[in-house]
Here is the input.
Amino acid sequence: MIYTEKLEVKEIISDHWLSKLIGKPAYFLQTISNSLDQRYFPKGSIFMWSKIPVNDIEKLIYFQKLGFYVVNTNIQLSLSKKIESRNNFNIRFAKPNDELQVRGIAKNSFQYDRFSKDPNISSEIACKIKEEWAGNFFLGKRGNWLIVAEQHSKIVGFLQLIDKDHDAVIIDLIAVDVKSRGKGIAKEMISYAYKNCLKKNDIMKVGTQIENKLSVELYLKLGFRFNSASYMLHMHK
Here is the structure.
């Protein structure tokens, strides 16, 4: 959906999948300028999200005046070297019959993502979003690979990946079952992905919430390097 004004084209992209889960029309504001006005927003009760660099305080203030608020701060990191792992778990690509267990882990593993931190989105809906997000891989709707960690014939973690622009592989979702954390499972899944999903000269990228201390520490320990940071913005009306 395209809205225009004198200065610039504004891209407001409808997200039908998220709309069904949230229960009202959802949109991603892709192109941002300080000349944007609420007149260009879709009418009625809507949810809209966007992101801006953390150093653009002027734009942040402007968008807060429009009704947006910061739900979290996301940092982007990248990795360009191989990771050595101990191979203590059975790490493999997912099979169709893994879906139920992967959905269960996704549903109960996220507390720092933008949906969970939004006071206007219930915890039930936030959990459902992550469950369906992971489930979309098995429907062929999201992700190029999904890797699982298995122990005693039970899935204890998963890693969902996207092939981005043929030169970078993006960690889209990663989660480990609560009872299995602290054992190096995330490291082993990332190592497996680096060996089996990246081509020569590819890099791996990931975004995580700055308040997710354990996640940030893990990526830095594995050799990821900081690239940038963004404010994640939500608006409900």
